[in-house]
Amino acid sequence: MPEATPARTSARDVAYSRIRERIISGEEQPGALLSENELAVVLGLSRTPVREALLLIAQEGLVEVRPQRGTYVTYINPAVVAQAQFIREAIEIASLRECVRQFQPEHAKPLRAVLAQQELCTSREEFYPLDEQFHRMLLAIAGHETAWATVANAKGHLDRARYLGLSGFRGIEEYVHDHRSIVDAIERGDLAAAEDSLRMHLRFVLDDVDAMRLKRPELFDASPLPERRAPRAARA
Predict the structure, then answer these.
(1) d(Cα 209, Cα 75) in Å, to the nearest integer?
(2) Is residue 182 a contact partner of residue 137, using CB atoms and an 8 Å limit?
(3) Measured between alpha carbons, how far is 184 from 113 in angstroms, rounded to an integer?
(4) Looking at CB atoms within 10 Å, which of 2, 37, 133, 212 has the fewest?
């Protein structure tokens, strides 16, 4: 039988990925009016896939399509950030038990390699995809990599907050330190410590949102701050 031809990435998927990235990174600021024509020129695509991509992105709440007025980048909503963080935490914490149970010595090398790459990063653009890769690897070890799609679909506002947090609110070295603590605990087979480290790591974005909202209020909508959940203290 002939080898299967790899699936081609559709123009809509390309447009979706690149426009979403522009919003997450802050290149397209909250409140900005997005022009289908201009985006099509920038991306080298026709208007149809751009329009389709914007409709998908609207489902994530990252843009708002206003009839007869245009498509606008939404403001960061702290309540939505908190809800997305809750969903992500629930999925990733639930998978850790299986991750620890399934962990083998050969899993350590690729995880440590990603950590080493993260240590060399000097910008959020370099670090962000490696951060995503690290968390996906933990889910993959647990046999739950497909759950990342559920996480990804829920975390548009969360991604914007995390990306903004890398702009002077929290250093890359803090992320890497947390990641290393999680891996150390998994390698020891210490599920409780791994859970505590991961939980606190995922929740610090909520502290960052509070600080960012004070410093950059123009990026946020006016919804009330969500009620905070106190993280469990990490074990020594």
Answers:
(1) 13
(2) no
(3) 14
(4) 2
What is the Cα–Cα distance from 193 to 188, expressed in whole angstroms?
Answer: 9
Pairwise CA distance, residues 215 & 169, whole Å: 10
Helix (H, G, I), strand (E, B) or coil at 73: strand
Residues paired with residue 65 on neighbouring β-strands, in sequence order: 71
- Tally Cβ neighbours within 10 Å of residue 60: 20
Residue 224 tokens, joined? 């009330």
Nearest-angstrom CA–CA distance, 146 and 164: 27
What is d(CA 21, CA 206) in angstroms, rounded to the nearest whole number?
Answer: 21
What mean pLDDT is reported for the chain?
87
Tokens in use for 139?
């889910």
Q: How far is CA 87 from CA 84, 147, 222, in A?
A: 5, 11, 23
Question: pLDDT of 19-35, one tens digit each?
Answer: 999 999 889 999 999 99
pTM here is: 0.81
Nearest to 71 by CA among 117, 19, 102, 32: 32
Question: Cβ(95)–Cβ(147) under 8 Å?
Answer: yes
Gyration radius from the chain CA atoms: 19
Using an 8 Å Cβ cutoff, are 130 and 30 in contact? no
Q: Which two tokens stand for residue 191?
A: 């599920």
Give the CA angle between residues 126, 7, 152 to the nearest 5°: 45
Asked if residue 79 lies in contact with residue 226, where contact means CB atoms within 8 angstroms, the answer is: yes
Q: Which two tokens stand for residue 149?
A: 């799609």
